[in-house]
Structures
1.
Amino acid sequence: MPAFTPPPLPSDDKRWKIVNGTMRKNGFARHALIETLHTVQSSFGYLDDDAIRFVARSLRVPLSQAYGVVTFYHYFSLKPPGKHTVTVCAGTACYIKGADKLIAAAEQRLGIPPGQTTKDGQISLMTARCVGACSRAPVVLYDGEVAGEVASEHVLEQLERWAVE
Amino acid sequence: MTIEELEQIAESVRLENAKFDYEVNVCMDLACASQGAEKLRDALVKAVEASGKTVLVRRTGCMGPCSSGPLVRVDPEETLYHHVNADHADAIVASLGGDPVPTLQCDLNDHFDKQVRVVLENAGHIDPEKIDDYISCEGYKALLTALTEMTPNGVVHRITESGLRGRGGGGYPTGLKWGTVAKAGGDLKYVVCNGDEGDPGAFMDRSVMEGDPHRVIEGMAIAAYAVGASKGFIYVRAEYPVAVARLTTALREARRRGLLGSNICGTTFSFDVEIRLGAGAFVCGEETALLASIEGRRGTPRPRPPYPAVSGLWGKPTLINNVETYANIAPIVRNGGKWFANMGSERSKGTKVFALTGKITNTGLVEVPMGIKLREIIEVIGGGVPDGHTFKAVQTGGPSGGCIPAEMLDIGVSYDALLKVGSIMGSGGMIVMDDTSCMVNVAKFFIEFCMTESCGKCIPCRAGTAQMHTLLSRICDGSGTMDDLELLEDLCSTVKEASLCGLGQTAPNPVLSTLKYFRNEYIEHIAHKRCPAGVCNIKAAVEVLA
């Protein structure tokens, strides 16, 4: 069998080298699929068709299987995130402490349901399954920064600040 | 590395620490960090520099009572300060050597007195990013003792003798599992740590991985020696970036000290660990799904047998234990199986860590001996329900568990007792609900969770949870009928009996337990179109479903 040559990088964007690095570290083994997708998402913010194709070819995984993995796991996103992201934790402790009110307030202010980004690409509204800060419920992540015991007003204030940027 | 060398390191840490007159420990766990613990630590460091006192400011893992955070403990006096912020730094440093700051001091004796710390003994006392801190608390002594003085069989025997049962929730005897993997043939075996803490409302494993990462690694290494494995994986949720960072640092430090790698401690035993990131799938907490995910595939479970102990990762014998289970190993090896078996109740030994959250005064992380009454955890350790509300139920076991009502609070916490009242031990989430929670809505919340998290492989779980969700939504919005209730109960038993894996088999538990103890709330919704807690949005006119 001829030796396998990985496909060329999709472009000269330096981030592809980081992605390639993860695959090389794992010897281009198939089991590195999820690890590699994590690297793509942390470098580019989301997974697009080109990225999934490139990773699938490099790891010799059928495209259908790679796409199956991407859509199976909640953590992977096929859409680019907004400039800012507000993530409301929807874990049990947060639910008991009224996270639904926070989600409703943000939904109303932004005019989008959870999982979407405002039309101007400024703010994404997300929900998380649990970030593990349950003792400070309800919890909201502003661009990844954890804030505890959050009230609706607090969320709205932050959204205002982002909106005028 | 030998035991003598370990002791030398521990001694040098002690000498180093003795140079300081005081130690100011700052809890930097997620809950305290979200309240500004980072700024607080910087302010403390500055205040110490300005004061000229010899003080060690140390970052630590979770101290426990998160609702009182940010927390600071001053040693050697063991003065605990609560709700501390950066503005208090000068006052705290100025008080060293004199009387403590009265306005910040907190009295949590009731909270701590009933607790027994085994798994959490180092959390809040050591810097999780310093391996030498861990070594100074007898860290890695158990591993080296096992490698130099015990046979692999002897280790398995000691774990069996301790009576330790799996802390992920199932409660399978750990010694028995280890014995099976040890006996399995083949020279390539794996050890896997399940750190996919998917239960929403639980954070024990996160705190252990972040606050005392070496404890987990040491437990895994001992397990690998006992079962004859040379390679390990820690599967951590991607939602826990700090845990991933701490474990990465810990693994690097352990390799540097020769406690991981080839020929550990000059013996023939070699072992190393890799971290694998989860990607947000609750079902990956199920062991066969977790293995599929490590192999880079969709996390769908498969029928057992064969059990992973016989055929796991890439078809090789694989030992899978939970984070807390591994965290119990080093103290058992160090102190003996009998020491551990002396704690707890008859069939549930040792201690259990719980994440106490919801409508309770002292939220946070607690570690209690098995057998303690639920009432003691909630009323004494947790300080009861705040704001004049009354206790309604405590939910254990997350989406796989049940709601336990007030009249059952006198049961002792053990695997069997919780199962008997229709809940499970689970990984340790404990969510308290008061009179403002609607139990039908709670059941709907959990079923919605299981519905979205169902992997879709088997029909009872995939379709059953969706139908249950439809029925519960109808009951919640006031359009449910008594027939719906009957159908719901029927579906519960189908999903429970016929699902492939634990997710589906236990998904009906929250519904069944609320039906059992809070049936009147269901009836109120159906017969009187009324939500007693005022949570559900009952429609004025009953719509006919299209």
Note: The first strand of chain A starts at residue 84 and ends at 89.
2.
Amino acid sequence: MSNEKQIQNKTPKKLRKFDTKVQLLKYKVLREVARHAYNDTLLESFNDIAKVIVKQKTPTMRCCIYKERAIVGERIKIATGGDKKNPNIIEVIDIACDGCPEGGYTVTEDCRGCIAHRCEDVCKRGAITFDEHQKAHIDKDKCVNCGQCAKVCPYTAIANHKRPCERACKIKAISTDEETRAAKIDYSKCISCGACVYQCPFGAIDDKSFILDVINMLKGSDNNNRYKTYAVVAPSISSQFSYAKIGQIIAGIKKIGFYSVVEAALGADMVAYSEAKELAEKGFLTSSCCPAFVNYIHKSFPTMVDKISHNLSPMGAIAKYIKDTDPTAKIVFIGPCTAKKMEIQQEPVKQYVDSVITFEELQAIIDSRDIDVTELEEDVLDNASYFGRIFARSGGLADAVTQALKEQGVPEEEFKLNAVSCDGIEECKKALLKASKNVLPNNFIEGMACVGGCIGGAGCLTHGDKDKRQVDAYGQEAYEKTIKDSIAALEKIGNRKIDE
Amino acid sequence: MKVYVCVGSSCHLKGSYDIINLMKENIAKNGLEDTVELSGAFCLGKCTEGVSIKVEDEVICGVSKENFNEIFDKYILKK
């Protein structure tokens, strides 16, 4: 065998689908649940699924295979809709939580016992003491975890032992349950962004899945004869499923039973156009596209609620449009977002979107049908403009609103856009704090709860640096180059206007 | 009379927006604003034969700028 041949054989046939093994585990559960749901064998197979996923005799994840199977059982519960009494989308699987140490700031071995003692000087609480070797120690009774000592240490010898979930949750909705020591979510704060879901190394926090609703919807449509099921896909799809072409994924979505696939980006075009109008009228707005950001305003900045744009999210806007043209339509949003699952529980979106699944869940459903999308003929997906498509990344919405103002010919003396694009919920918080005190110099807050925008969403298969470029490239492929071109024809249909 | 023009991906790429514009123009030219209700549809199930339109319950495929007048005449004006 030649060298070349050997190398070829070593290269995996398909690129890796997920970032982490936790995602892979979650995916396997979803896939098996979907498989049994299609075969109508879910009820009797509940216990078998755990054995399919933990089939070996020695444990690979936990203390024993029985605990592993018990946890898979909990995962199945969440994959089939989770705790019905708890409306929050994100749930902790108590028995899966490893109860990570939560030491806060601790001095590590790297402390050299220097003379400067910057840590001591900066500590306002007098929590730093030194032993006979001049090495620092932190008095836990006095320490408030402000982190100043860690910042000034020239050897970065002070580390913050924070649980990954708490570290991921920038809005501080996660704490430790006093009794069980497991992670606990404060539902009055949680915005369902899913950051903790993606970050927990033990997969102990999960987003509820509604794949059963979707599978039942597809089955009940009788091959789209009784009613039609539409998939509305988020533009971030362009950075996902890197092992196949987008057209093949679209073909796959139709193959599992969807009647048609429509770009949420067309809804984004509609939103950009009417948001620009609303903004020029009111003079100050926050965006309304990101459900986690909107939920954050409701929960933590209630005085700012009237500043949220009155537009539906792109998902809501396009779904409303489809239901106007086909009133019996069922609509499923497919995207990177766990918070969208929360958005559709609320008015007014509730009536337009029937269910939400993530890219992870889509992959699981496709694979449960044993469909190899790389073998499918490419289908097409084209409804939106460049600007609607770049909503998927941070800064895209502000670019689109700039474009819409230009296309609408709003003179600068009348309204000049000064947008702040908040990349991640921490930046959103800063901007909202300033705005609530009337000291924000900007007149438009583009709020995206996930870092990077939707392409950083918890329901994405992969999260990478190249994702933003892929979204932009996909945007460039759009048939319509301006927002007006994209929605003008739709505006002409019927006698309704898009923003009504 | 209800007339749908498909704006699904396939038809969109084949120029359904041009057809909508023509449709709008011709409806106005013939003073049919009150009798014809124009609407969009995301897919009429004939993706390979687009642009598709639907007049009442009948799906008509392969509509283009070239044959538009003929089709408008046959399916909309004469009914």
Note: Chain A has four domains: 8-80, 83-100+165-208, 104-161, 221-492.
